[in-house]
Amino acid sequence: MRHIYRCPLRWSDMDAYGHVNNAVFLRYLEEARIDFMSRRDAESKDGSVVARHEIDYRRQLVHRPTPVDIELWVTHIRAASFTVAYEVKDADTVYVQASTVIVPFDFENQVPRRITPQEREFLKKYTDDTDETGDGGEAVAA
């Protein structure tokens, strides 16, 4: 299953050439990730931090009044990190493909932490048949 976030385009997102600035896509990914993560246990006091981003720009996106879709899914779940993949797209055009490695974090003690069983179950619902393992299954590393 994939999470879909409808992301509005803002006039301020454009660069001098009338295209969405490349750095703005990180904010789009963040908005989609926050929307996705807000679906898990709202009472959790622990959070997460970004460890790595990877972005491939496929097409230029120009400002327009209609939102763009950001599809997000989980490609890897490890003991103390997970990876989400994204496509920023319309029905017929993919503008950006990206991935983010996310590390669960204990902000009170300022240390990374392991993924809880509840978080793992939540993340497993969003693994996709087209994940990077090539077999449609959950990629797990110790």
Keywords:
142 residues; alpha+beta; Thiol Ester Dehydrase, Chain A; 6-stranded antiparallel beta sheet; 2 helices; 15% helix; disordered C terminus
Structure, described:
- GO terms for molecular function: fatty acyl-CoA hydrolase activity.
- It comes from Streptomyces monashensis.
- This protein has 142 residues and is α+β, with helices and mostly antiparallel strands.
- Mean pLDDT is 88; it is low at 131-142.
- The longest helix has 14 residues, at 24-37.
- The chain has two helices and six strands, in the order E-H-E-E-E-E-E-H.
- The two termini are 24 Å apart.
- It has a single domain (3-124), classed as Hotdog Thioesterase (Thiol Ester Dehydrase, Chain A).
- Strand 4 (82-89) and strand 5 form a beta hairpin.
- It is elongated.
CATH architecture, by name, is: Roll
Taking all Cα atoms into account, the compactness measure Rg is 16 Å
| SSE succession | EHEEEEEH
Looking at this structure, what is the CATH superfamily?
Hotdog Thioesterase
H/I helix tally = 2
Instruction: Provide the structure class.
Output: alpha+beta
